[in-house]
Design a protein that fits this description.
With about 240 residues, the protein is mainly beta. Helix content is about 0%, strand content about 60%. It contains no helices and 22 strands.
Length: about 240
């Protein structure tokens, strides 16, 4: 549809469903510069970042708003910021800061919420008001993530290797919708430990077929066969069976 060159190196970019697009580039005199273009490639909006080096940008579906993440150093530590832009205003409508967090990704969800994913914290931000709710990983590090519609999946691994890894599903209010503590695979059976319940799935079809009680102290599971599960508790190993 269009190709061209910028006069400065491109740091990040995004395109909206409406065809509007945005580029963040290096610029003389500032750490980063944001330019937003209409479908005819004319500049609609421009903003220079004086404090933060931009790491990512996301446009909403119609290209009228943007979320931008950036980082800087302060007192020997890392500080991240998330800017929320409404292109009808010359200045950001919100600038949210995060001490000792490296924000890696920002993205608009389908409902207009902005999710900002960092190395120690995920933040859900109201794309209109700038209000936020943070989800802290506590003693775990984020090793991977995925965003789908209005949900975020976080793979969290312990730093000390003494506690279990987790797969956490968050909704747009940063509430845990599902926490997967452990998985095991044997034959055509995949078992997933969620809270104190083990759910059995067919590995070939993906359909669930049964559940079993694991106990409130369950920390890990291992399938002995396609119907029997060993459960690692705090002080014992016991068996559970799918009915």
């Amino acid at each position: 549809i269009y190709s061209g060159n910028t006069s400065n190196n491109i740091i990040a970019g995004d395109i909206a469903g409406s065809g509007r697009y945005a580029l963040v580039t290096e610029t003389q005199g500032y750490p980063s510069s944001l330019s937003v273009y209409l479908t005819d490639n004319t500049v609609q909006y421009k903003y220079d970042f004086s404090e933060y080096y931009v790491t990512d940008i996301s446009l909403n579906s119609d290209g009228t708003r943007a979320a931008v993440s950036g980082i800087t150093a302060k007192d020997g530590g890392i500080v991240s910021a998330v800017y929320i832009f409404d292109f009808s205003n010359p200045e950001p409508i919100a600038i949210l800061t995060y001490n000792e967090v490296l924000m890696e990704k920002v993205e608009y969800m389908d409902n207009g919420t902005v999710v900002a994913i960092g190395d120690t914290t995920t933040s859900m931000i109201n794309g209109t008001t700038g209000e936020k709710v943070d989800y802290n990983y506590q003693s775990r590090q984020m090793t991977d993530y995925a965003i789908d519609k209005n949900r975020v999946a976080l793979a969290l691994t312990p730093y000390d290797n003494q506690s279990a890894s987790k797969l956490v599903i968050l909704d747009s209010s940063a509430s845990e919708k599902c926490v997967i503590d452990a998985v095991s695979l044997y034959g055509d059976t995949a078992a997933i430990l969620t809270d104190s319940t083990i759910t059995g799935y067919s590995a070939s079809s993906g359909n669930s077929f049964s559940t079993a009680e694991a106990g409130s102290d369950a920390r890990g599971i291992a399938l002995a066969d396609e119907a029997t599960v060993y459960v690692l508790g705090v002080s014992q190993v016991r068996q559970a069976r799918f009915s």
